[in-house]
Amino acid sequence: MLLFRPFSLAWWFWLSWTGVFMACSISVKFVGLFVIVLVGLHTLNDMWDILGDLQTPIAQVVKHFVARALCLILLPAALYITFFYIHLETLYKRFVP
Predict the structure, then answer these.
(1) Is 9 helix (H, G, I), strand (E, B) or coil?
(2) Confidence bin at 41 (pLDDT 50/70/90)
(3) pLDDT class for 25, splitting at 50, 70, 90?
(4) Which residue ranges run through the membrane (predicted)?
């Protein structure tokens, strides 16, 4: 599909939002871990296809790997830590009438 060609604005948008929603799913319940496993397996399969295509230059493969590492590992981890930090910062404050 032309709209989702690699490294287009739409491609970055959806890759980043996938990372955001992965962080949200793991933050709600640990059942969200299965969402992360599912996305991880799909990403591994996609990377395997990209790596297996001998017409793809190695620089392009590295770009794909870095983009996925940023959006699907670092972004969800940073958001999860931020959510947890906010939770712990507000946890000790209790409502006193």
Answers:
(1) helix
(2) very high
(3) confident
(4) 20-44, 65-88
Q: What's CA 43's distance to the chain center, in Å?
A: 10
Residue 36 token pair: 């992360």
Q: Tokens 């690699």 — which residue? A: 6
Question: How many residues belong to the chain?
Answer: 97
Q: What is the Cα–Cα distance from 68 to 73, expressed in whole angstroms?
A: 7
Burial of 23 (0-12, 13-18, 19+ CB in 10 A): buried
DSSP 25-88: HHHH-TTHHHHHHHHHHHHHHHHHHHHH-TTS-HHHHHHHHHHHHIIIIIHHHHHHHHHHHHHH
Amino acid of residue 32: G
Arithmetic mean of pLDDT, 19-28: 86
